[in-house]
Amino acid sequence: MDLIAFLGDTLVHISRLALTGRPQDVQAQLRQAIVKLRKGDAELAQRLAGLLALSPSVAAPLRDVGASMVPVDADSRLALVRNEYPVLLREELILATDTRAQLQQVVEENRSIEKLERLGIPPTRSLLFVGPPGVGKTLSARWLAAELKRPLVSLDLATVMSSYLGKTGANVRQALDYAKSVESVLLLDEFDAIAKRRDDDSDIGELKRLVNVLLQEIDDWPSTSLLVAATNHGELLDPAVWRRFDDVVQFDLPSTDERGRVLVQLLGEGDEIVPWIPVLIELWKGRSYADIARATQWLRRRAAVQGGSIVEPLLDKIGDELRAAEPVERKKVAEILQDAGFSDRRISNVVGISRDTIRRSRKATPNDG
């Protein structure tokens, strides 16, 4: 096919897509055209790539949020989404290195849209966050919105899940159409509530139809907006949902190093705190970032109320937790305190092990030197 014929066919196809009101399909068709045009007419390919690169940022995000009427439930008249702009983070995002790299890649793609469009490649449009509660999924969505300088649009599940047959699907479609119309980061938290497996016999037919709506919407999601779905229960999701996302990000409980970083961030690096950080790292193994943050906030409040050092409530908390711990865990904490140079009396008071047992343990452990 010569260039003129190719351009004619492409123009007809793009016009048909534009008339059906599907800008994301128009963009996809243009990307295919750019790849083919690069050999026959490089200048035209460059001009089209420039248009695609500019299209997501024609309007400022703040204007976009107000440009479309926020959708509401027809019966309650409550808003189906919540808007936040600008997104301000109150805490540092601490994640595993691989997880952080995946999110940084998404940010870099969206900052290099023109480069991608010249190659006919769309940026990442949709992400699925999977992991236990309290490991940073919601905070990561907020971080993406802050880094991209976009509004965060959050689906309000309490309003969306209507008791009237057929209304939930309509509400979800309204909310997603709204998020498509603004340059934003859309967060679908507790995604498993609206994307359950369709072979779950306990659910009514409407929720199964809702999954079909979601599959179509994710497939058609435009590159002008970023869709982030988060779930604590990946096993509940319909299998077809996983394949629709551009990338899946796994969030895990913090590792030893990550627990140390978050404890230093929350408690500081004062001389009185530093010796106890290794103890907390060991004691709070298996806890989420949110659990650690709550515990340290309690310590700070307790110290402020008592008007003294944070070490005293810290020792009380360590003692309370060790009393319920297994002997092997208490022995491990005792060894950490021994390495830190604490006296046998102090170690005994903290971990609840007799000084004789501590001394025997010290003698049984060979010196490294």
Estimate nothing, just give the exact number of structural domains.
3
How far apart the termini lie comes to: 79 Å
In total, the number of strands is: 6
Classification by helices and strands: alpha/beta
Biggest sheet overview: 6 strands, mixed
Provide the low-confidence segments as ranges: 56-64
CATH architecture of the largest domain: 3-Layer(aba) Sandwich
Mean pLDDT: 82
Strand content: 5-15%
The string of secondary-structure elements, in order, is HHHHEHHEHEHHEHEHEHHHHHHH
Radius of gyration: 27 Å
Under CATH, the homologous superfamily of the largest domain reads P-loop containing nucleotide triphosphate hydrolases
Please provide a written account of the structure:
It is a single chain. This protein has about 375 residues and is an alpha/beta fold. It folds into three domains: about 5-60, no CATH class; about 60-250, 3-Layer(aba) Sandwich (Rossmann fold), CATH 3.40.50.300; about 255-365, no CATH class. About 55% of the residues lie in helices and about 5% in strands. It has helices spanning about 5-20, 25-40, 40-55, 60-65, 95-110, 115-120, 135-150, 155-160, 165-180, 205-220, 240-245, 255-265, 275-285, 290-305, 310-325, 325-340, 345-350, 355-365; strands at about 80-85, 125-130, 150-155, 185-190, 225-230, 245-250. A six-stranded mixed beta sheet has the order 1-3-4-5-2-6, sandwiched between helices. Helix 10 (about 205-220) links the parallel strand 4 (about 185-190) and strand 5. Helix 2 packs antiparallel against helix 3 and helix 12 (about 255-265) crosses helix 13.
